[in-house]
Amino acid sequence: MAIKSFLASLISVVALFQASQAGLIKRAACPGTKRTTANAACCSWFSVLDDLQANILLSECGEGSHTALRLSFHDAIGFSKSSNVGGGADGSLIAFGDTELAFAANNGLEEIVDDLQGVADAHGKSYGDIIQFAAAVGVANCAGAPRLQFLAGRPNATAPAKDGTVPDPFQPVSTILARMADGGFSPAELVALLASHTIAAADEVDTTIPGTPFDSTADQFDTQIFIETQLRGTNGFPGTGPHQGEVESPLAGEMRLQSDHNLARDPATACTWQSFANNHALMSSSFAAAMKKLAVVGQNTRRLTDCSDVIPVPKGTSVTPHFPAGKTNADIEQACSSATFPQLPTLPGPAKSILPVPPGS
Description:
about 350 residues, Peroxidase, domain 1, two-stranded antiparallel sheet, 13 helices, disordered N terminus, calcium, oxidoreductase, EC 1.11.1.-
């Protein structure tokens, strides 16, 4: 009994100490606003947040938010361990836009680069910071997304990235994985980063159908991309689509990238891909961890300031994993050798064409 009494007293003392310490941690009030932050140095980012949401991202999970997220990957992956070139997440895609926007892989980023350069210059922020901040805010605009970390203080880029550092959708899986490994990312981390495609749409793969989404719920950060890429197609699928990097999707109005199709079926990535199909929590946490790593490629994190509490808290999603109308487990092209595809419900009613993401939304 004496031991139990001692342990109970010790637990009480620890609890009181923790409570007293918590009371000592005060949030800084940002001048002229009702906002607070754990670090007063982050207060200036609230005005950047307001500017972005009002004028670029429009506070919605639309084209602006999608493209800001795409830009964060294209800027950060411009880094090579083997050849020691590229500054990673340093904003070189803005600072040296004349060079990097000429790379084929960066086609379609011109408008967001111009927009974010204007915001960065207006608020005195580095281009590396504005790219990763806009991506984190854009993701937060999408229901079901995780709240991403944001560290501020990246110095400005001193040189452009090298052409060829951004993987292309028409490349073989082996080439894509080798490029990502050279940038410091494993096959599992690549699949986690591709959760971004659940809120993505293509403008440049096929310019005749701009805004074509990669899954049926492009305004929701859900697991549908990992389900719908695993569906078999029709008309001799997987025959290539009309444009390089595209294969035929069995869902009207949806685009399937060749790289997504192949990664969903390759032995190196198929089981990770499938593991996200009905596990939103796993997909979300894996994406957040991979983005945390991506956002600081090439940076010394000891010199950065954690301003994550400026990022809005995303809303939850009401979408649960499902097959689109008319599709069932019988339509799945099984690829993972160690586990069968999960049993999922099918949406009722007739199949409907998936609507494009409106421009400027």
